[in-house]
Design brief:
The protein has one helix and ten strands. The protein is mostly beta strands. A five-stranded antiparallel beta sheet has the order 3-4-10-5-8, with no helix packed on it. The relative contact order is 0.19.
Amino acid sequence: MPIDPRVVVTGYGPDGKAVVVRDTLVPPITARALLGQEMYLMWGTPDGGATVGPKAPGPITLPFFAGIGGTRLLLVRFPPASALTGPPSPNDQAEIDAEVQERLPGLIDVFDPGDTSGMHTTDTLDYGICVEGELWLELDSGAEVRLTPGACVVQQGTPHAWHNRSEIPALMAFVGVGARRSA
């Protein structure tokens, strides 16, 4: 049975005691350019660093990638490759790109225009955990690693792509930390 992404957030009540301030299912964000993927934007913190306590800010989930010191928590459900219908018509590309930019600002910026391999590079330190199904991590060197539930990936800003070669959806949980790219 697939997982329904839900976020439970704690905070402080008027008496200073810990309380649950949010407990809700998170709806997926989809776009035609994502070819069946479901993005669940769970939580995020401001660029420059997180704060905790009674006056901690609420979630910041957009832009898609955090700036230096910011964080993003998301789940991504990848459909099986067999369920994909192929790339969109080039005539629709501007409209499709605009849809992604509206729903998930910044996401499309990490992909090379016209490249359909899914290879991309981000200025984030990403911690990824395979939660359901199986997924393949591909690097630009050609190296590939099969991820199954419980596999943890530390993605250090390298060019990479994700592929679901199985017949069932795969779910990954990601924590992205905005980072400075070293020379």
